[in-house]
Input
Amino acid sequence: ITEYTVTIPNVTGGTVEADITSARSYTNITLTVTCDTYYNLDTIYVNDGAVDLRNNGNGTYSFQIPEGNVTVSVAFNYQGPITYSNENGVEQTLAVGDYSVITGGMLVNGSSGPYVPNGERNFSSGTYVVNKNTIIGPSTISGDVNIILCNGATLDIYTYGNGNGYTLEGNYSLNIYAQSGSTGTLHTHPS
Output
């Protein structure tokens, strides 16, 4: 009788533990998710979504092991204080609740191209943080907007048709700041 393995890579922001790490096909497996302080669960998949995963609602997820090994993919989203360098190079810290996290589509392993969410994104006055690789469509700035690119994060902005990546409405400003490591990246992609 063949047993298949459950592989869970280590990631920043929390842990995922399986109650069984090796089993025969059609065995029920329960995953327990524990988030570190200031993190929440962003995504969790088994075999890149090819295996149905049920959210049990109590920090646990379950699935039946298929006829083959499985890999659990998980990502945690940081939602704590953010430190960045302002336009004068002076380090600033934003408290929890003083910013919004920019969310959007993400590249999927093995896909022929990026997933781009439909429609435009509207940014009103405020501070927004990009803390993971994020893809958005054309965006309208309708207020003074600050975007902070966290270390290691990438913001990809795609256009549709003949559209622009960003449209500034009125006499507003768009400021893009980096964290002290300056490893955040901004890309624009014309259609």
